[in-house]
Amino acid sequence: MQQISVSSLVRYLKNRLDTDDNLQNIYVSGEISNYHRHFSGHLYFTLKDEKAAISCVMFKSAAASLKFEPKTGDKVVVYANTSVFETSGQLQLYVKKISLDGAGDLYAQYEALKKKMAAEGKFEESHKKILEKEFPEMIAVLVGDRSAAMSDIKTAFARRWPLCEVDYYPVLVQGNDAPADIIRNLKEADEKNYDAIILARGGGSFEDLFCFNDEELVNTIYELKTFLISGIGHEQDFTLTDFVADQRAATPTAAVELITPDIADIREVINEYAYSLTDSMEAIMAENRIRFDLLTSKLMNYQNILKNIYARIDACTESLKHSLYHNITVYRQEIAYGLDKISSELNFRLNNERLTFKRLNTLLEAYSSENVLKRGYTLVVQDDKVVKSRKELQQKEFDVRFADGTITAIERH
User: Fold this and answer.
1) In the CATH hierarchy, which fold is given to the domain comprising 124-259?
2) I need a surface site. Which of 121, 160, 215, 244 has the fewest CB within 10 A?
3) What are 180-186's contacts with CB under 8 Å, separation 24+?
4) What is the pTM of this model?
């Protein structure tokens, strides 16, 4: 009979569990018991229901993202991997996330919708667009107004690629009204020929991010003409928006970094070209001097010839140095001119957009109802509805609104 050691058996079981997709990245609901936070920051507890219990551990790195302190008796849903602790041979869950039960229905909705849309091909790589421009000129950013994510994105653009024109579309990023607001702004941005769209939000709980699992929102992103990158939550957070996006970033800042070059790298490349030209010049000079020294050693007896050779080599060296330095200066000037031209063009476009906005705002104010009343017109209102014809008047009181007040009247036949 073949015999195996305990450690071999436990290791085999652990490997089988770790490679079983049905036991990895699963949601398990139950009640917490024997909860303990170790001084190391790790969380240890038992998850149980009426018929069974299983040991759980949540390491410090994962526990740092918790929005509440769990306790014994809490009914929760955990997101975890199943494995075996080899030292004791104990089956346990390695927990990545914990949410109070009640979010369980949301997880079920999330998984069901994810499965449905995957079956529809909404997440297929073959449908995803690529960012065509290595140096994007115009990017739209959909993010919460005055949020930390917006601040991080602005900082990233200023640091990495300040030559890009960035338009910000403040949107709702949480709650029932968020999907419709995001959809409306996505469609608007998609019509403006941006090089890319960034859809971003800072970290939050599963419930906070649930608006990004909206089916209509996923379908809208799927139909976009413009390349879209999502930067929602933290690295461990995934929404259906991430799956349908053309590219997914772990954070809002990472989204900027993935689709823009670093201007510091470009400057470094330019400097490397300059250094390379200088090195080439010095190498040529060094080579010529070596050749000259060889000739000198052979022609010591020909002083006149040597003087002529010296003069010719010095003239060639100076000419070469001047030529190379001149070319370097020209290249630098051309690069500086190009950068200034790009900056001027971007400022010109921005000023045009500002003038257009000012003109449209002036027209809007001119045709507002208040300004119409100020020009001598009145407004007849009955039962909180504007009366457009005398036939609509009922034989009872109605209001006549002027620019400076309202009077009440009644029609007499």
Assistant:
1) Rossmann fold (3.40.50)
2) 121
3) 182/142, 182/211, 182/217, 183/216, 183/217, 183/220, 185/142, 186/142, 186/220, 186/221, 186/224, 186/228
4) 0.49
